[in-house]
Give the backbone structure.
Amino acid sequence: MKALVFNGPGQRTWTDVPDPGIIEPGDAIIQVDTVTICGTDLHILGGDVPAVQPGRILGHEAVGTVVAVGPAVTTVQPGDRVLASCITACGRCRYCREQAYGQCRGGGGWILGHLIDGVQAQYARLPFADLSTYKLPDTVSDESAVLLADILPTSYEVGVLNGTVRPGDTVVVVGAGPIGLAAILTARLLSPSHIVAVDKAESRLQAAKQLGADVLIRADEDPLEMVNAITDGLGADVVMEAVGTPGTFETCTRLVRPGGHVANIGVHGKPATLHLEDLWIRNVTISTGLVDTYSTSSLLKMVATGQLDTGQIITHRFPLDDIMAAYDVFANPAETGALKVVLNRS
């Protein structure tokens, strides 16, 4: 089969590799029908995730058709159309029993495209298939479903829920890329009074507006002055970092009000300064997190009933065989206007 293989920082190839097979009794093999590229994949290619070794097949977001299952699998069978979650859960360890699946110690967690081969391929192996896949209703398209593999639950859990967004809050999202836009989309579920989007690209700010942001701020303007203007000088109740750079994190800590919450969603490859000399006296809470995907079932129901329109975030579509070109487009959003790119089996 063909797969997108990481060959070291800055190096990737679409090449022939062996087909995956059943290794453990709980495995399933899927034919990958729809897949997408994550900002984390770009961090891997940038050398920010050293646990990913050369030779690894990348990707952790896919919809596929089950073609084979191990003898212990009971909830899916060949022919089923499923969502492959970015997080794999053993279901038995302490963390899984607490729904903290991202911290699974039984062989799961974020392993696809990280510690084992991922789903940017024609076929993929999914461990612990009973707990790590979701059968899809006919009313949910592959494209709508694939965004539930990672960015929707990540933004909702790590940003909106960990950030404790409440009705009437002023919410600021720094970074209007795919993760930031998903945070805006899901923050609306909690009825904040204002959703503020901060980004340097006008096209992304306009996308944020379409998804529910009512205040748009260019990063080269003065976000602090503008946030203070709409909060009577108090600052935002919740600020979400959705970029993963030292500068954007420090911006978030300046925009939050005393007693407010900074929810870091972005993947950081470099240290960021934590100004405790300013923050300690302001009662600021800072949370970080890897998604657990405990919200995936609820989000899937909302997509199925039309409460969430995930397709608005997709800007580019490619055949799976054009994944090298898709990476080029996704990695250069300033030139291409790309938000989320989706690849479909030809």
About this structure: DSSP finds 13 helices and 16 strands in the chain. The chain has a mean pLDDT of 96.
